Amino acid sequence: METLRAAITGVNAWFPEYRLTNDELATMVDTSDEWIMQRVGIKERRILKGKNQGTSVLGAEAVKGLLKKTGTRADEVDLLICATVTPDMMFPATANIISDKVGIKNAFSFDLNAACSGFLFALQTAAEYVKSGRYKKVILVGADKMSSITDYTDRTTCPLFGDAAGAILLEPTTQDMGIIDHLFHTEGSGRQFLYLKAGGSERPASHETVDAREHFIFQEGQTVFKFAVSSMADVAVEVMKRNKLEARDVAWLVPHQANLRIIDATGRRMGLDPSQIMINIEKFGNTTAATIPLCLWEYEDRMKRGDNIILAAFGGGFTWGALYLKWAYDTKK
Ligand code: UT7
Asked: Which amino acid residue places its CA nearest to atom 48 of ligand 1?
């Protein structure tokens, strides 16, 4: 019997117009363009402005464009998964709201939360549905409105994050293409170093939690940095090894974009040249579940059918992982 795999057959992204630059941030907190560029590598990030504008706004625009670009009708979609840590609301799922906004009626949908590894974990989940043979067109959207949980009085976190969405279409293939292997991890004891302290069932919103600014991202940066640098590289190298890939066999590393120093260290450990690494952190910052599809969208016309691609991420939880796929199409320029 032929092996059924899931292949990415289209990619799209969407981000708001407003650019929050380092210079503007320096008017809000005690920071500078020099510090942010040297320590993190971000120049600007996009912010979704306006009242009652949630993550579904970002996600729906990305999916709308994806349907158009791939010539897919909304009624052909079998499943939509949204990876996010900033859902429009606790429930229902943002995936349902996105489906409604774009007219997807014949699909079921749900959210998946694995913080910055969300897109990666959801990609493998989506791939399993496709590999089952029952689901022919699956959409995965990674979307986060990080500005909704960012404290713009805290200089240690506010330069890091931005808002964006990226969406991909997955379809079955019997060719030697698509998603081949993955290695994922969770270390729940790491949750104390990067999290949202309140707003969930443990500490519901109250005057006290609002006054203590507990509805904003808390991060112990250095601890997360140390874990991220070693874990993301370890897992990416392990995925290369078990698939017998040398550095020269890898066309692209698509890393989560949290810090340029983490990306560089991962590339070095894998033995890659910087030209083999997708990087756009300078323009978008850390958009959590959107970083990887945003990179795929930006580099789409530079990837070729058959390219070996490694995706790698590290995030809150802690969660981390790497995934190996063969790119399935050439993009006409
Ligand atoms: O995507 C999810 C996973 N998250 C990550 O991967 C993030 C991992 N962590 C990081 O990327 C880095 O730890 C940060 C970018 C968050 C911070 O960089 P760092 O090199 O670890 O800086 P630090 O926290 O050790 O702070 C160094 C100094 C401190 O001052 P003192 O104590 O040495 O006087 C900070 O107060 O830099 C200061 N500082 C700043 N200065 C200017 C912290 N933030 C700023 C700032 N502007 N925005």
From this structure: 155
Distance 222 CA to ligand 1 centre (A): 7
At residue 67, the pLDDT reads 98
Distance, in Å, from the CA atom of 248 to the CA atom of 85, rounded to the nearest integer, reads 35
> Active-site residue numbers?
116, 256, 286
Residues with CB under 6 A from ligand 1: 31, 35, 39-40, 116, 155-156, 159, 221-222, 224-225, 228, 258-259, 262, 286, 314-316
Exposed e or buried b per residue across 220-238, where buried means at least 16 C-beta atoms within 10 angstroms of its C-beta: eeeebbebbbbbbbbbbbe
Distance CA 139, CA 132 (A): 15
Domain 180-326: homologous superfamily in CATH:
Thiolase/Chalcone synthase (3.40.47.10)
Same fold for the pair 5-175 and 180-326: yes
Report pLDDT digits (tens) over 182-205.
999 999 999 999 999 999 999 999
User: Would you say residue 332 has pLDDT above 90?
Assistant: no
- C-alpha distances (whole Å) from 71 to each of 15, 123, 129, 179, 255 are 21, 21, 21, 22, 28
What atom in ligand 1 is closest to the CA of residue 224?
8
Total Cβ atoms within 10 A of residue 275? 7
Q: Decide which of 3.40.50.2000, 3.40.47.10, 3.30.565.40, 3.40.50.970 is the CATH code for 5-175.
A: 3.40.47.10
Whether the per-residue pLDDT at 306 is higher than 90: the answer is yes
Is the Cβ–Cβ distance between 6 and 127 less than 8 Å? yes
